[in-house]
Amino acid sequence: MIMAAKTSSCESSGKCSGGAKGQLDKVPLDAKHKIIVMSGKGGVGKSTVAVNLAVSLADKGYSVGLLDADMHGPSVPKLLGLPNLPLRVNEKGDIVPAFVPPNLKVTSVAFLLRDRDSPVVWRGPLKMGAIRQFLEEVEWGHLDYLIVDLPPGTGDEPLSIAQLIPSPDGALIVTTPQDVALLSVRKSINFARMVGLEVLGLVENMSGFKCPECGKEIAIFGNGAAKQAAAELGVPLIGSLPLSMAISKSGDDGRPFVRQDTDGVKEKFEKMAKDLVIRLEKKQR
Amino acid sequence: MIMAAKTSSCESSGKCSGGAKGQLDKVPLDAKHKIIVMSGKGGVGKSTVAVNLAVSLADKGYSVGLLDADMHGPSVPKLLGLPNLPLRVNEKGDIVPAFVPPNLKVTSVAFLLRDRDSPVVWRGPLKMGAIRQFLEEVEWGHLDYLIVDLPPGTGDEPLSIAQLIPSPDGALIVTTPQDVALLSVRKSINFARMVGLEVLGLVENMSGFKCPECGKEIAIFGNGAAKQAAAELGVPLIGSLPLSMAISKSGDDGRPFVRQDTDGVKEKFEKMAKDLVIRLEKKQR
């Protein structure tokens, strides 16, 4: 059910190209691969996956851009331990992204806010404008990978990104094992298909908890539902991450878990990232 | 498809009343109290709080309406175990809400979808129209309480609701103890203040986990941060709920936990609901 008024949004942003058709200009972007991280439901760890994927790739030597497209709950700077400082503008008038050594460039609406407590009360067209600016007016340079962290849902931002980014490789969809979360995942998968975005795979987060007191495995949010949903919907389940205090703390501390020793989680995640890279590089050829 | 959307045409034509200021007509609504449940971040249990509050009040004999305003991830029907059947229209052309005995009326965009896997790909004005329709073209009758379950964030829907609902009592803001979630809570509180919505209080969810194997309390998402944020921001912390397999399962099963024996959670929640009712009834006088 795509009832989206493509034209209305494009008209109000004043940047329509093929007016009558309501198509949007693709943004020119020197990025070899573009991965969109999305989820149907919030709080499933989408930003955590995006941040750790970006850091993992950057630490392997790839040049990586990370675009935090969540206008209302931009958490990428917090997860990376970056201060909320305004971004610089270079002599050409382009925004200079925040830099995380050795190879990661980051933009986020959080950098545009007066203070960390200010809400962004923008309607669709304004958000669209901001996302376009983050794509085309940022000094990204050449990127091997652009990772886009979308807000949850199937609203303005996912639509805009899908319309603006030239030939994205596809979407990673993050979920938890709960039925309620999987309900939204199905929507995300259908949404991706509707806008012509390949689903690279599902990432299941919080898929089990190891009690630090007794060492037993507890399936707090249930078990096996993501695998079943993936099979039903014909998409690969490319990784499962546990519910872990170390992951939660790594986010609060602003230190990505792929840079820490986190009880096997790092290794699991690195394997997933490596498999993904192999798949995408193969596709390229 | 019931989506006639009076407002959307008004919005897109720019001929809304008070257009320039972005003010909207208030919707006439026969509801004594209106409570808006919101969160800055998804996945914190906002819908769980909204559903259990609505059921708890209805079971006490109040006549209650529950409006699921989450267009992209409508989970209220699932949490209540309601089937995704289309809503009936009465002889006057008004939508007849779903009914949960003894006293609860429910509307949700989930009831409008062809199947549970369809995403809603609507931009702001269309969503606004749907929300207005859910407020004014639904056979709510007289309500003691209208509970509105907002989608996470500070975008179109919260803005619309705040603009459309006549004299709401205020907002409950749901969070988890994580720093990352509290970052969004601050935004929500400031957002509520910006639109003139009283913050009734914070509800902290997932505030501790009791291991079912060894019985030890584990602070998976940290500890004490919500209390500190509430004090800093000058809003009351009105309740804390644990991370619990019983709560998670109650959602997946569609059986609200206030109707089950859930290891003390029910009692905790009922106390919070009772305190809230006393406060709101006092305010009324």
Give the tags.
homodimer; 285 residues; alpha/beta; 8-stranded mixed β-sheet; two-stranded antiparallel ribbon; 12 strands; 36% helix; 19% strand; globular; disordered N terminus
Account of the 3D structure:
Two copies of one chain form a homodimer. Chain A is α/β, with parallel strands linked by helices. In chain A, helix 1 (6-13) packs across helix 4 (124-136). The longest helix of chain A is centred in the C-terminal third of the chain and has 20 residues, at 265-284. In chain A, a hairpin with a 6-residue loop joins strand 10 (209-210) and strand 11 (217-218). The relative contact order of chain A is 0.17. An eight-stranded mixed sheet of chain A has the order 5-6-4-7-3-8-9-12, with helices on both faces. A two-stranded antiparallel sheet of chain A has the order 1-2. In chain A, strands 10-11 form a two-stranded antiparallel sheet. Chain A is 36% helix and 19% strand. Chain A contains nine helices and twelve strands. Chains A and B meet through helix 4, helix 6 and helix 8 of A and helix 4, helix 6 and helix 8 of B.
Task: Summarize it.
The structure is a homodimer of 285-residue chains. Chain A is α/β, with parallel strands linked by helices and 285 residues long.
